[in-house]
Structure formats: structure tokens, C-alpha cells
């Protein structure tokens, strides 16, 4: 039987928004057929035009909003919604925090998990929080521009105020952009894989105020490089490191596998919970400094350490969680796959005078099995995996090692739900989850869950 959707492309209709997807799109239904709509909030009545009709769902665009949700707020610039910068920027902050709590509840329900979700820990001011930016550089209307892509496109919208980034980072990007213009460095041309400057990455230590600039280029050569470097250093005296990463091929990956030093140090310095950290260009570092302290404190509390425990910190990055836990534990083993991050972690342990930690380079799922085979017995396991969650081989090794307690720091509810369901089969049980808003104004959801062995 041929499927016939109840709407056709370009059809205009009036509908009420009934839900918000995990990506922050409004949902309206026509005879049970869902339409996804940008910039539309639950309870709003909207006049729509259907833009795309698929087999199971379609997309529509708002022509006119007939009523406003009480949770709607105005953003200072429409570009923040049109790009990936602030996809939840039209929702009041209080409603964003509730939305994230509800998303976790939905995932747990789907996985038949009876876990209480606590109210999301938010920020007093949910703007200007990001300590890192990766900004595309393109030629727009005959001029080199920095900005942000329109959603689901590579069309650059020029921007100077990125709203969720540390304003000092925004200022740095404009200064670098102006130097690139002054010295006629060609912007990258994606369609023809020509030009030079692809992206500018900036990191700023929230506490140290040290800055790193990474120039990401298609070619090794950068014209007028010395002038550009001295321009950056003169105009931005807090820049302690300028690096280059060469990405010759067409790809969506921003940073290459290697970086080269152009000026100063290869890392910046920062602080978390009283410890100091070196962060190099290729290492992962939490992007929201104020919320990171709350996240880590939540994880430390959830670990219930007395000083006698052996702890594994899997996906340990530059060792931030490991070092925060070390003074409450007997010994901490970290495992991490990025070489630069492990080097940072080792140096960070030394600089902080922490000796009861060891960092191992490797895949968490492999090293965990090796540790299990070596008879390592951990009392507490902390995991903080990337969005794809834990590998099933990792979970199996956990099932054999049987740490009494697991603290799961997650940046993706979908894989968290899946992994908790798997861990349940090995006898683990979770009572509650604490969301911490690490990414205000965006749809991303971070949370901490403690699991105990029954
Ligand atoms: N806990 C750290 C890092 C968390 S981000 C912090 O809070 O800063 C996740 C980290 O896992 C990244 O550093 C990434 O390089 C690393 N990673 C990704 N896949 C991995 C794997 N299979 N094994 C080990 N580490 C991995």
C-alpha cells in the first residue's frame, strides 16, 4: 500500500505546538503525522507552511505566530537561533532547565528505568560561558569573515558577538580576523578546496586569563606569518600560545591530528577546584568553567570516598576528575586515548604534587580488560565517555571487576539510558540522576548518576 502523508509540500495550515524534541524543535501533529518546526514552543498556535514531507514525519516553517508561550523570550540576534549557537535561546532559562530534566526522564522511561531526575543545576547568568571557540573563516561578499554556519548548511553568517562565548574570546576573534584582512590571508574556499585560513580556535583560562590561538589552515605556509604573530601578541598580551594545525583535505573535522607551535608555550594554564592544569590544543577540556566545578563536585560527592578506595577514572582527559578525586582516595588510575591529554595529565599530577595517581594511554575498553586480567580491584569507577557512551566490551569488563560503585558522568542521555540498562544486567542499580547545565541555551544535557552493586 502506498503511504499518503496527510499534508503536502507548500501547504499552509494552522496548528498548535504540542511538544519540543530533544533538539529543541517544536512538534505539531496533523492526523498523528508529526511536523517538526524551528522556533516554535509548546502551547503556541502557529500558521505554518510545510517545507518537507517524509514517510514518517515532515518539516514546516512558521509563517506567523498567533500566540506566544509564557516561556518564550526574545534573543538579541536572530542568528543565534538560525545557527547552532543557541538553539534553545527562545526558551526562558528556567524552562530550559526543566526541559533538560524532562528529557532525562523520557529516556529513563523508554529504557524502563525507575530513576529519579533531580532539578537541573543551572547558572546565575547563562551567557558568555564558553572558554573555547572554533570559528570558521570564509570569504563573504568579497571580504574575509568570521562567524557561524546557518543550521544544516555551510553558509557562513558573519558575527562578532557569539553570545555564549567568553566576551574576551569574541574580542580576540575580531582582532585575529582584522589581522588576516590586513595581511591579505585568503580565507578557505570549501567548494574548490582552495584558500588558506579554515578556522580559528581560541581557548581562554577562566581563572588564569591565559589565551591560546590555533590557526587552522589548508596549507603549511601562511603569508606574512611573522607580522600576524606580532600583531596578535601586541594586541592580545594575554596570548601565551599560538599554534597551527594543517588540514589539507576537504572535511568537517575542525582540528588536525597534530599541531605545531608558532609562538610561546604549547598549552595554557587554568584552575579547577583549587588545582592547576595545563591544557594543550588537542586535549579535551570542559568548556564551561563555572559549571565544571559544580559538575565535578557532584561527581566527587557521588563517589562517597573515605580515603581508602582504589578508583578508576575512565576517559580521564587531562586528569581533572582524577586529581580532584585523588585527595579523597587511596589511589586513582586514569585511562585516556589522546596522547596529548595523557601527557598533560601526568604533568598536571606532578605540578599539583599529587602522587597517588597513574595515567594510562589507551582505549578505555581495552585497558579496562587488561586491568581486569591483571587482577586490579577498583572500589569506585568514574566514567565520563564521549557522546557515544561506553563500549559493550567496557561494560563486560566492569561486570567482571565489579566495583562497588560507579559514577557515570554523561553528556548524552540516550547512551546513558542504554548503558545503565546494560549495567543493571550486571547487578548495578541507580536511584537518582543530577543534571548539571554545562551548555546553557543549547540542547546538550550533562548529568551525574551514581550506580551501586546490589
Ligand atoms: N573527564 C575528562 C574528559 C572527558 S571527555 C574531563 O572532564 O575533562 C571524554 C574523554 O574521553 C576525551 O578526553 C577523549 O579523548 C576520551 N576518549 C574518547 N574515547 C575514548 C576511548 N575509547 N578510550 C579512552 N578515552 C577515550
From TrEMBL:
Domain TRAM: 6-64
Residues that hold S-adenosyl-L-methionine according to the record: 286, 315, 336, 384
Keywords, in A-Z order: Methyltransferase, S-adenosyl-L-methionine, Transferase
GO BP annotation list: methylation
Sample GO molecular function, one term: methyltransferase activity
Superkingdom as given in the UniProt entry: Bacteria
EC number: 2.1.1.190
InterPro entries found in the cross-reference section: MeTrfase_TrmA_AS, NA-bd_OB-fold, SAM-dependent_MTases_sf, TRAM_dom, U5_MeTrfase_fam
Family matches, as Pfam families: TRAM (PF01938), tRNA_U5-meth_tr (PF05958)
Alphabetized SUPFAM superfamilies for the sequence: Nucleic acid-binding proteins (SSF50249), S-adenosyl-L-methionine-dependent methyltransferases (SSF53335)
Broad enzyme group: transferase
Signal peptide range in chain numbering: none
Active site positions, chain numbering: 411, 411 (nucleophile)
Family: Belongs to the class I-like SAM-binding methyltransferase superfamily. RNA M5U methyltransferase family.
Name of this chain's protein: 23S rRNA (Uracil(1939)-C(5))-methyltransferase RlmD
Gene source species: Loigolactobacillus binensis
Name of the gene: rlmD
